[in-house]
Amino acid sequence: MKTKLLLPLTLLGALLLTGCGQTGPLPTFGKAITPEWIQADFDGVSGNEYIATSNLQDVVFNARGEVIGWYVKGYAGTPYIKRRADGTFDFSALQNQKGIVNMVAGRKAFALSGEGLAPAQPAEASVPSGLDTDLKTNRQTAVFRYTQNGVTVTKNVTLHPRNFKIDLQTRVEGGPERVSLLFPGLGKADNPRVQAAARGAQPAAVQGSGTLNVENIQYAALQENPSQVAHALILRPQGNETVNVRLTGGAQGLITADVPATSNLEIYGGKNELIHLYQSGYTELPGLFKPNFFGQISLLIVKLMETLYKFIGNWGLVLVALTLLLRLVMWPLMQTQGRTTARMQVMQPKIKEIQDRYKDRRDMESQRAMQTEMQQLYRDHNFNPAGCLSNFLPFPVLIALWSTIRNFEFDSGFLWLPDLAIPDPFYVLALLYLIVNIGQLYVMTRKNPDMFRQQAMIYLIFLYFALTFPAGVTIYIILSTLIGIVQQVIINRQVERETAGLGQTVQKAPAGGARKGKDAPAQTIVATTKGGKKGKVIDAPKQD
């Protein structure tokens, strides 16, 4: 039976399709990043840049508070920036950009233009103040000031290390009453979706490489097609201020926002993925994100997690409770699946006997006789081959659950784990993951050592993924697998008791009448059933 080999391979493919195959550098296993501000020469031009680094992204500002590098991480915790032994920093990974997406793609975000203000012209910029990181409140703050042609600009920037949101407060003094803010993004996208929704209206999108003006917006967005590796840039006015936008489509997607001299915008720059958008409060905006079937399941799971957290108050214990609840709900289905697996294991030796008996017989009569014996064996053991399909029924929930926990941003650790959103820094979970999966494989293939050896090698491949899984994902898999092992052991004992009296004997024709060749009489196969009673009599094909 190849089903057991197919399952891990199918799961591996599902994980790859849902985002394990990320672009960019592979993560340094277990190395979480402590959010901080780095002051260093990033672009090689005289003067420092200011880099806000965290597990989710690295954002590079120049002295005017313009974003000149916006690097969203495919794997949370990937250290794009290396600290050398002498205390200096190595930015080569970001500067070479091999597989790393710079959302602004050589352009500048948060750049101001208007009367007296021009991003390409020189300005007198002061050293930013208020460079601070407060992990308890999930904030990285900075204040940028510069003067250009007698106009003074102050930008208060607040990043949130555990999500992709940035608060941008801008004040222009001695200049025009309204200015333009530039939001280029999604540097790798050939043709992102560019749209905006006016307050109280449905969204309008740019067609092709054209332009579109939308007044008094509730949001404007640049978006790639949703996936684990897709990106989005979304801006949303705060308060009642009027913000108008000009949308530019095509390869160089751009949002130009017309804002008051004093403005307050919330900006999302990160993954165009349901859970991150949900946690940031964007999924209720019209036309921004339409969940598919798996997304609908993910939303139910994340809302259940939030409900459990209200009562439990610890995300690690929430995952434990979620695992128990989901296994309880799926228990009847897993019971059916487990009984199918157990019966197949009991039958394996007898299936092999039948296959060996006919392995040199390829004629139609022999094949029909073998199928007849196999069908009788299935009936005797109350086994339905179609029951193997039940192995795949939980997959939609498992895939949605994987995506939910993987993308959920937890605000705490658990036990020895500093952060449930990144891999275990001590590799304990990866080791437990391998042990419990090998244990489960043994329980499911204990009567077929060859199959166990074959599939054990496959699970070694999964060890790599366990090293990169967020700790929250690995906790769920370990607990769920342990429960599955206990359930399967119970089922195995039940099925073995039920099938203990089932057997099969072969009664050959009397010796006196035994002849070889085509004229030899057929062998008589008598299948015995539970209690030793004779069952159906099958005439096997003659042997040459």
UniProtKB/TrEMBL annotation:
InterPro entries: YidC/ALB3/OXA1/COX18 (IPR001708), YidC/Oxa/ALB_C (IPR028055), YidC_ALB_C (IPR047196). It is found in: Cell membrane; Membrane. Residues 1-23 form the signal peptide. Keywords: Cell membrane, Chaperone, Membrane, Protein transport, Signal, Transmembrane, Transmembrane helix, Transport. The chain crosses the membrane at residues 312-334, 383-405, 425-444, 456-479. Its main location: membrane. Residues 315-493 form the Membrane insertase YidC/Oxa/ALB C-terminal domain. It comes from the Bacteria. Pfam families: 60KD_IMP. Belongs to the OXA1/ALB3/YidC family. NCBIfam families: yidC_oxa1_cterm (TIGR03592). This is YidC/Oxa1 family membrane protein insertase.
